[in-house]
Amino acid sequence: MRMKLLGLSLAAVLSASLVGCTKKSDTGAGADASAKGSQVGIVGNEILVGEYGSFTGSEATFGQSTSNGLKMAIEEKNKAGGVKGKQLKLISLDNQGKAEEAAAAVTRLINQNGVIAVIGEVASSRTLAAAPIAQSNKIPLISPSSTNPRVTEIGDYIFRVCFIDPFQGTVMAKFATDNLKAKKVAILRDVKSDYSVGLADYFIAKYKELGGEIVADESYQAGEMDFKAQLTQLRAKKPDAIFVPGYYTEVGLIARQARQLGITAPLLGGDGWDSSKLYEIGGQAINGSYFSNHYTTESTDPVVVDFIKKYKERYNGVVPDGLAALGYDAGRVLIEAMDRTSELTPKNIRDEVAKTKDFVGVTGRITMDDKRNANKPAVVVKVDGTTNRFVTTIAP
Ligand code: PHE
Predict the structure, then answer these.
(1) Where are the chain's structural domains?
(2) Which of 157, 233, 242, 260 is least crowded, fewest Cβ atoms below 10 Å from its Cβ?
């Protein structure tokens, strides 16, 4: 049964919507785990871990990179003997980058597959849509990379291993002020994205506090392809920089159209730019722009160097992006929490994830604070051809 679900995203989505209509299981145990005498998330010699992500659609690299990192963490643990002698089994469901499908996927992972814990999502809007289901079923959920503050406010079973946007907004506001000496900044935000709206607001608050002026605040909606009207408005205000806290597909197109309109000001962004596709879509137009991120591949930290080496060996020479690193870290935080439990139950795992302290991650040291967030430094990188060059690190 479980085997058949793997990879059948369309079928999975269809039946997930059906499952979504059925009564929620009281224990969170699903079809596989509800057999007499079995525990939630454990079937025979296997521990079931769920993952939901955008494996297809305009944010496909987010889901794919995260999954690659997570798989690596799981494979390493299984090779080393697994958790309490049991092998970890990852069940991955595609949500095509859609919030409704994210909710359906988590419903399915919990009620149908009977997973013990869930990893995902990347995009804040999708985690916000899906995490309430994990919370109400009391199944721990760790987002590797959703940075909107509201994500972990959903409840005590919801965690993340990344920094949050009030910090990320501050990082880029400081960078614009101190490093770029920008006096006037224009904003172009995706009003459909909780991440983009929040990050724009946090950036603006800090940038004004530092004495800067916001000369325009324009918007778009993910999926749009023509940004010329908004860019023409921005151009008239002669900004020193343009802050575009969106995802790579739209950002690449925005960069191209900005340059076509003769705008030469650097574009600034956040972690949502982090994709090898950014350069494919943005081309030369994105060159010289800056964004904040979770790690740099130029780090000489042995933990990072070792991770990059292993990842490249495992994935045909591909250099891991920030999401691959966060997927790996999220997986390892979960695995180590499982190791520390006296008995593998969702509640015990939740309690141990909450106690995570000074965990040495690829993306920095991870300590869960009392709001289930991780306080970590951010890096600012500059787009340089098909790579990102490290510029600076900014600590919380
Ligand atoms: N932080 C983004 C969000 O919350 C997601 C993201 C993280 C995208 C890291 C790319 C890299 O929506």
Answers:
(1) 10-163+304-376, 165-293
(2) 260
Q: Residue count of the chain, please give it.
A: 396
Rounded to the nearest whole angstrom, what is the distance from the C-alpha of residue 19 to the centroid of ligand 1? 28
Please provide residue 179's backbone torsions phi and psi, each rounded to the nearest 5 degrees: -85, -45
Nearest to 195 by CA among 124, 144, 142, 102: 124
In the reported structure, the alpha carbon of residue 145 is separated from the centroid of ligand 1 by a whole-number distance in angstroms of 5
CATH class for the region spanning 10-163+304-376: alpha beta
Q: What is the pLDDT of residue 396?
A: 87
Homologous superfamily of domain range 165-293: Response regulator (3.40.50.2300)
357-382 pLDDT, tens per residue? 999 999 999 999 999 999 899 999 99
Q: How many angstroms does the Cα of residue 344 sit away from the middle of ligand 1?
A: 30
Q: Is the CB of residue 124 below 6 angstroms from any atom belonging to ligand 1?
A: yes
pLDDT tens sequence across 143-198: 999 999 999 999 999 999 999 999 999 999 999 999 999 999 999 999 999 999 99
In the chain, the percentage of residues whose pLDDT exceeds 90 is: 89
